[in-house]
Amino acid sequence: MIPSSCLTRLASAAGLVFVLLSSAPPAQARDPGSLPNVMILATGGTIAGTGASSTTTVGYTAAKVGVDALIEAVPELKKVANVKGEQVFQIASENMNDAYWLKLAKRVNTLLAQGDVDGIVITHGTDTIEETAYFLDLVVKSKKPVVIVGAMRPSTAISADGPINLYNAVILAGSEEAVGKGVLVCLNDQINAGREVTKTNTATLDTFRTPELGLLGYLQDNKAHFYRQSTRRNTADTEFDVSGLDSLPRVDIVYGYANMDPTALNAFVAAGAKGIVHAGVGDGSLADAVKPALIEARKKGVLIVRSSRVGNGIVARNGEAADDDLDFVVSDTLNPQKARILLMLALTRTTDSKAIQTMFYTY
Ligand code: SIN
Which of 328, 249, 321 is nearest to 282 (CA)? Predict the structure, then answer.
């Protein structure tokens, strides 16, 4: 039997069908006049996906449902914020690119500069959510909350996670607690820092983790509960400014593996890469077969960042390579996909490797 206080949603293949069993006010409900103004910027992903049936949780189509339908599907949002929606673009996030990032960042900065916007929620595909979160963490020029949210199940699935994730994200974006915490990723009742979070499972709802360093807090009982925050500078405290940019420097990732050779690296350099992130094995180790090509690329002016495919830990400067002599940079704790973002933005400011190394220890 379903308790009368429960809110149950029924998803159908034909679209979103929601059944309100009770309208008990959430614990954090405020008078309409004092609700925060939260803008929801929709960009696509599984949270906006539809499947052929309510049991379709793979093989569905991402980025089908528009922002108005996403908002209408969660009428409880009205009790926790004054929400407005805007469709910035509509993509599956494997198609994320620099142009979309720049468009999104500029829109976020424009909106956050307005006095009538208290926070922003961005709905996004989960596949590259961690990259967009870190990009925005570095280029948003405001301390106001920015929360990125997605879903692992399409909107038409039984127990779709999109509605509760969106509800939690709006509460978080409207909360005082989230001010100054950098760009946040909120799914599965958990709050993670954009710099640290990574997708760890292809399919499960608890896929987003900050391995070892830990999540920042929880969304529970209609409230944000924080327990820690990243020590790295972010948002209004960074030196990066995308307002005048319409492109970003090309930076590619070379993956390390047994028996690797420099074919991919050389192709990236020939294609005009201004920077290479080497996702090395272990502590960012370089294979003898690849090291000469990295040294050659550096001599041509390409910035080389040693990262690691391991996923946790610090890549030690002058550890597995003589970085001072080779004029290489190390990624600190950033995984390769996030190191790529910081290197792109660093290259909009300088080509000095020492200055760029300082940025990797700062952001
Ligand atoms: C995407 O990233 O757009 C598809 C996968 C997802 O959102 O979970």
Answer: 321
Query: From ligand 1's centre to the CA of 361, what distance in Å?
Result: 31
pLDDT tens track for 126-153:
999 999 999 999 999 999 999 999 999 9
Mean pLDDT value across residues 54-63: 96
DSSP lists the bridge partners of residue 8 as: 19
Is CATH 3.40.50.40 the right assignment for the domain spanning 251-362?
yes
Could you tell me how many helices (H) and strands (E) the chain has, helices first? Answer: 10, 16
Pick the residue whose CA is nearest to atom 7 on ligand 1.
125
pLDDT value at 21 more than 70: no
Instruction: Please say if 358 is a catalytic residue.
Output: no
φ/ψ region of 108 (left if φ > 0, alpha if ψ in -120 to 50, else beta) reads alpha
- Stated pTM of the model: 0.91
Using most ligand atoms within 8 A of CB, pick from 70, 89, 93 the residue to mutate for ligand 1.
Answer: 93
Pocket probe for ligand 1: among 50, 89, 94, the residue whose CB has the most ligand atoms within 8 Å is: 94
Residue 110 main-chain phi, psi, to 5 deg: -65, -45
Local structure of residue 26 (DSSP, 8 states): P
Work out the mean pLDDT of the chain and round it to a whole number: 92
* Residue 42's pLDDT band (cuts 50, 70, 90): very high
8-state DSSP, 79: H
Distance CA 112, CA 180 (A): 13
* pLDDT at 272 > cutoff 60: yes
Q: What is the CATH number of domain 7-237?
A: 3.40.50.1170
* pLDDT (0 to 100) of residue 33: 62
pLDDT in tens, 224-235: 999 999 999 999
Domain boundary assignment for the chain: 7-237, 251-362
CA torsion angle 131 44 219 16 (round to 10): -160
Domains 7-237 and 251-362 in one fold: yes
Span 284-313, mean pLDDT?
A: 98
In angstroms, what is the span from residue 63 Cα to ligand 1's centroid?
8
What is the distance between the alpha carbons of residues 229 and 133, in angstroms, rounded to a whole number? 15
Residues with beta carbon inside 6 Å of ligand 1?
Answer: 44-46, 62, 92-94, 125-127, 150, 152
